[in-house]
């Protein structure tokens, strides 16, 4: 299998979109940690896939301050069952809202039938999220309210949260 790539110019820099031909398998900010870690090699540039057009329209709407529906996109992030559970919980965080790593860890533990779950393990799964912005890892904050742990950079995390209308005075930006 070969993954196809295209680029989208956003207010926070170029984004690389990846597809398996039908579904979106990746969306990374330039120089993002773990950039392309789940891509099938080799890759080819292909700009005219329907999923890329849908994703670019979604991103246009998002960056204009609208609330496009994630359900309109066919997403297929690649990862373990544990990571898939974490990423689904990220996708469920409402636009303009935030959730702590600890809260997500509690939800993962419940879904997996475990008494508890490590916030660090959840943080590692979040850091490896292959579909940034759409699977909203930027909406996760520390229990202290600080903006920590965004693989795309804290400045970009703050930008995305401000775009969504999050009250940044209530959050701590180190």
From TrEMBL:
<dbReference type="InterPro" id="IPR023546">
    <property type="entry name" value="MGMT"/>
</dbReference>
<keyword id="KW-0489">Methyltransferase</keyword>
<feature type="domain" description="Methylguanine DNA methyltransferase ribonuclease-like">
    <location>
        <begin position="6"/>
        <end position="76"/>
    </location>
</feature>
<feature type="active site" description="Nucleophile; methyl group acceptor">
    <location>
        <position position="137"/>
    </location>
</feature>
<dbReference type="GO" id="GO:0006307">
    <property type="term" value="P:DNA alkylation repair"/>
</dbReference>
<dbReference type="InterPro" id="IPR036388">
    <property type="entry name" value="WH-like_DNA-bd_sf"/>
</dbReference>
<dbReference type="Pfam" id="PF02870">
    <property type="entry name" value="Methyltransf_1N"/>
</dbReference>
<dbReference type="InterPro" id="IPR036631">
    <property type="entry name" value="MGMT_N_sf"/>
</dbReference>
<keyword id="KW-0227">DNA damage</keyword>
<dbReference type="InterPro" id="IPR036217">
    <property type="entry name" value="MethylDNA_cys_MeTrfase_DNAb"/>
</dbReference>
<dbReference type="InterPro" id="IPR014048">
    <property type="entry name" value="MethylDNA_cys_MeTrfase_DNA-bd"/>
</dbReference>
<comment type="similarity">
    <text>Belongs to the MGMT family.</text>
</comment>
<dbReference type="GO" id="GO:0032259">
    <property type="term" value="P:methylation"/>
</dbReference>
<dbReference type="InterPro" id="IPR008332">
    <property type="entry name" value="MethylG_MeTrfase_N"/>
</dbReference>
<protein>
    <recommendedName>
        <fullName>Methylated-DNA--protein-cysteine methyltransferase</fullName>
        <ecNumber>2.1.1.63</ecNumber>
    </recommendedName>
</protein>
<dbReference type="Pfam" id="PF01035">
    <property type="entry name" value="DNA_binding_1"/>
</dbReference>
<comment type="function">
    <text>Involved in the cellular defense against the biological effects of O6-methylguanine (O6-MeG) and O4-methylthymine (O4-MeT) in DNA. Repairs the methylated nucleobase in DNA by stoichiometrically transferring the methyl group to a cysteine residue in the enzyme. This is a suicide reaction: the enzyme is irreversibly inactivated.</text>
</comment>
<keyword id="KW-0808">Transferase</keyword>
<dbReference type="GO" id="GO:0005737">
    <property type="term" value="C:cytoplasm"/>
</dbReference>
<feature type="domain" description="Methylated-DNA-[protein]-cysteine S-methyltransferase DNA binding">
    <location>
        <begin position="81"/>
        <end position="166"/>
    </location>
</feature>
<dbReference type="GO" id="GO:0003908">
    <property type="term" value="F:methylated-DNA-[protein]-cysteine S-methyltransferase activity"/>
</dbReference>
<keyword id="KW-0963">Cytoplasm</keyword>
<keyword id="KW-0234">DNA repair</keyword>
